[in-house]
Structures are given as structure tokens and as C-alpha cells.
Amino acid sequence: MSQEIKIEKKASEVVQPGNEEEARLAIRTRQDLSGARLQGMMLDNINAVGAILRKTDLARTDLSHSLLINPNLYKASLHGTAAHNTMILGGDLVKTSCKGADLSHSAIIGTDAQEASFEGANLNNAALVSTSLVDTNFTQADLSNTLLASLDVTGADFSDANLSGARSYHVNWEQAKVPPNITPEPLVKLPNWVWSVLIGSLVGIIALILYSLLRKKNKRS
Fold it and tell me: What domains does the chain contain, in order, with CATH numbers?
């Protein structure tokens, strides 16, 4: 888990974009937006590597159709945020609050989401892969038709969560604080070593492709 940073920024030190255009530029150029207030902004279709959004207020913000590689969203607020059709690859979602957020048709891969809250969130048709969900809250979340693979759900709470149609691999549901009422059906049964190779290769390939695309885009701009 990411260590708690004791030294807080003074209000005068917080980078606070004045409008959506400034916010987009700040996110793309990795400006430190820790503690900034971006609630309600239209920031959809944004591609960013290493965005610093620590303890940032992104409530009701539109982050849909975006690509976020290694974002720092530690303790950020995404209450009611629209983040559907979005990919989060790597990064820090520790203690991030996604209460009531729309993450449907999205993918969270290789991320640390310990103690995060997805209470009442919409994760329909989403994919959670190689992610730490230790002590994470999924109370009343919609996880229907999700793909769940190589997850650590130790201490996680799935009270009243909807996992109908979900498929899982390499998830020990018995370690959850409150396991799902219905255990997801397994994916196609293959030897464990095959799944490990496939998942590791998939994450690596996605990272390389996305990195190449972003480099090309940055050179053109």
C-alpha cells in the first residue's frame, strides 16, 4: 500500500485550473493537481501518463473514454464520476472513493486499489485484472458480467453486490470479508501456469502499445 504522506500542501500551493482546458493541459503535462477541485468538469477522451491527482476532487467529473496510465489517484474523490469506457493501467487508487461512479465497460489493470470504495458503483461489463482489492468496499456495486482475474480480495466487502454473469480466475473469494452471494463462474479452465503467462503477456502488450501510441501523439503535438 502507498504510504500516507504526512506533509500536506498549503492552499496557496495547490495548482487550481481555472477551466476545463487548463485542467486537461495540467493532467497531460503531469502538473501536481493534489488537492485541486475539478468537480463537474468535462474531461472525457483524455489520454495521460503519470497524472498526479492525489486527493483531487473529481466528483461528477466526466472522465469517460479516457486512457490513464500510472495515475496517482490516492484518496481522490470520484463520487458520481462518469468513467465508463475508460482504461486505468497501473497506478495508485489506494483509498480512492468511487462511490456511485459509472465505470461500466472500463478496465482496471495492474492497479493498487487497497481500501478503495466502489460502493454503489456501476462496473457492469468491466474488467478487473491483476489488481489489489485488499479491504476494498464493493457494497451494492453492480459487477454484473465483469471479468475478474488475478485479484487479491483479502478483506474486501461484497455485501449486496450484483455479480450475475461475472467470470473469474485466480480469485480466492474465501479471503473476502464478505464474499459475493453468488460466486462468479470460472473462466475457461486452463492450467494455472498458462493463465499466469497469458495475463502477464496481456498486461505487457497493452502497456507497450499504449506507450507507443502516446509517444507518437506527443511528437505530433
Answer: 35-221 (2.160.20.80)
